[in-house]
Write a structure and sequence with these properties.
mainly beta; about 240 residues; 17 strands; 8-stranded antiparallel barrel; 4-stranded antiparallel sheet
């Protein structure tokens, strides 16, 4: 199924116009019979090791950097051996394709729990203390990924047509808002759910349309010192990954 859609982001972030009401064409491109949902777990982001001072144990006997450096300057999650707080954080991002008859063809959902402020983050978004480690974070996060779209809605002039083609790579940002929690052993909770309709309304989606949308690494940035993703100074907080106990 191919889709033309837009995301209307909360809190004044610019509309991201993106994709595709596709039409059947003489030429085609390979596509699966189905690929939904896309769901990834989110883990804290760490800096790349560029000046090794240790060696990992076998079989991954490669150079490593001690201590590990968290990428975010402003946020963290509870971890007993790192900051004394309990390990209560989980996170995910999910994109779901609904049937063509649904009111909203695509739904983007994200959640990260136990998000805590580091020292130096504005008091206005760090005003709910916990029993141990930093207070709850009640600012903003920004989800982003690079997408590559291949479909049947292209022409040599603006306005679209029946030709199959691959678009240039595009950013796909969305803003997530965090809130305080009543539990003093758990940090802030960040949630986001947004349905996405095509430009012109959901009725523009038709059976037989088809789009392949590739996602690069999903990344989540903090809101910087002031907790606002629209200002400068944001740093990387979480990325797609897995945790092995």
């Amino acid at each position: 199924m191919s889709i033309r859609w837009r995301v209307v982001l909360p809190l004044g972030l610019a509309v991201l116009g993106a994709m595709v009401v596709a039409q059947l064409a003489g030429a085609s491109h390979p596509r699966p019979i189905g690929a939904s949902p896309l769901r990834v777990s989110l883990v804290p982001a760490f800096e790349q090791c560029t000046a090794p001072n240790r060696t990992h144990g076998p079989p991954l006997a490669f150079p490593s950097c001690n201590p590990p450096m968290q990428a975010s300057d402003f946020l963290t999650v509870g971890t007993p051996d790192a900051n004394g707080a309990g390990a209560n954080s989980t996170g995910f991002a999910r994109v779901t394709v609904n049937p063509p008859s649904a009111e909203e063809e695509l739904v983007l959902a994200m959640s990260i729990s136990d998000v805590r402020c580091k020292p130096g983050t504005a008091a206005g978004v760090c005003n709910n203390p916990n029993a141990t480690d930093g207070p709850d974070y009640s600012g903003e996060l920004e989800f982003n990924a690079t997408i590559r779209v291949t479909d049947h809605f292209n022409a040599t002039a603006p306005g679209g047509g029946p030709d199959p083609a691959t678009l240039i790579d595009l950013p796909f940002p969305a803003r997530m808002v965090c809130s305080n929690t009543a539990n003093t052993s758990t940090g802030g909770l960040c949630n986001f759910v947004l349905g996405m309709c095509p430009v012109g309304g959901c009725s523009q989606i038709r059976d037989g349309d088809r789009t392949v949308t590739e996602f690069g690494q999903i990344r989540v940035s903090d809101g910087g010192q002031d907790g606002q993703v629209s200002t400068d100074g944001d740093t990387l907080f979480a990325v797609q990954g897995i945790f092995i106990p």
